[in-house]
Amino acid sequence: MRRPIIAGNWKMNLLPGQAVALVDDLWGMISGQGSVEVVVCPPFMDIPAVSEMIGSGKMDIGLAAQNMHWEESGAFTGEVSPTMLLKFGVTHVIIGHSERRQFFGETDQGVNRKVRSALEHGLVPIMCVGETLKQREAGDTENVIVNQVKCGLFEADSARANGMVIAYEPLWAIGTGKAATALDAEEVISLVRRTVSETLNAETADRIRIQYGGSVNPDNISEFMSQQDIDGALVGGASLKAEDFAKIVRFS
C-alpha cells in the first residue's frame, strides 16, 4: 500500500519569517494525522529557517528544495549542490518542474543527471513530467510523457528509485486554475506507471508514488485521490495558505 504524499511548492514566494509562520500555522492544523506524508518546498533562502522550525518543533514534515545541481561542488555559479541541501536537513528535491523546463531550458538529459545524483545522495527526487497544451491538442501526450519518464529514469538504480516520487503536471494546468479531470490525470498517471515498469521493473513501478500537480485545491483533491494510481499531489498556490493546504492534506 503506497502512502499518499502531498507536497507544497511555494515557488518564489515568502521571506524566511513568513515561511516559518506558515509552517507553524500548518502544523497546528495537521498535527496528529499520520496517513499522509507532508512535504513543504520553500525557496533556497528560506530552507535554513524552515529546517530549524521543523526540527525544533519536532514536526513530521518533510523539507524539499525546488531544484539542485547534480555535482557536489565546482564552478557552477548560482547553483546549489545535493550535499549543501543535506547539510540543512533537506529530504526531498523537485526536479524538472515545468517552469524550470519552460523558463530555464532544463532538458530531459539534465533532469536525468539530477535524478540519479539525488538518489545517490539519499535525497527523494520528485521528478516532474507533463505535456503542453499544444502537444495535448496534437495527440502527442503519450509520446511526450513516455519519453520524459524513460529519459528521466535512464540508468537510474531501481532499488534506490523505489522511494522516489514522480509528479504528472500538465503545463496547461499549472497556475491557470484549470485542472485536468481526475479521469484524465488517472489515465496519464497509469501510463507513467507502465513506463516505469518497462524502464526499470514491475516491482519499482508498483512502489513508486505518482502525484498529480496542476491547480489542485481543497475542492478537487478528493476526486483526484479517489483514483487508483494517483498517490498524492504537488500543490502550488493553495500551499501558500495554511488553511487550504491543511484541507488538502486531510482530503479524506
Q: What separation lies between the terminal Cα atoms?
A: 16 Å
Strand order in space, largest sheet = 1-2-3-4-5-6-7-8
Count all strands and give the number.
Answer: 8
Poorly predicted regions are none
Q: What is the CATH-assigned architecture?
A: Alpha-Beta Barrel
What is the CATH topology? TIM Barrel
- Helical content class: 40-55%
Protein architecture, described:
There is one protein chain. Helix content is 43%, strand content 15%. The protein has one domain: Aldolase class I (TIM Barrel), CATH 3.20.20. With 252 residues, it is α/β, with parallel strands linked by helices. The chain has an eight-stranded parallel barrel with strand order 1-2-3-4-5-6-7-8, surrounded by five helices. The chain has helices at 16-30, 47-56, 82-87, 98-104, 108-120, 133-137, 141-152, 158-161, 182-199, 202-207, 221-225, 242-249; strands at residues 5-9, 37-41, 62-65, 92-95, 124-129, 165-168, 209-213, 232-235.
Concise summary:
The chain is an alpha/beta fold.
Task: Fill in the keyword field for this structure.
252 residues, alpha/beta, TIM Barrel, 8-stranded parallel beta barrel, 15% strand
SSE arrangement:
Elements: E1 5-9, H1 16-30, E2 37-41, H2 47-56, E3 62-65, H3 82-87, E4 92-95, H4 98-104, H5 108-120, E5 124-129, H6 133-137, H7 141-152, H8 158-161, E6 165-168, H9 182-199, H10 202-207, E7 209-213, H11 221-225, E8 232-235, H12 242-249
Parallel strand pairs: 1-2, 1-8, 2-3, 3-4, 4-5, 5-6, 6-7, 7-8
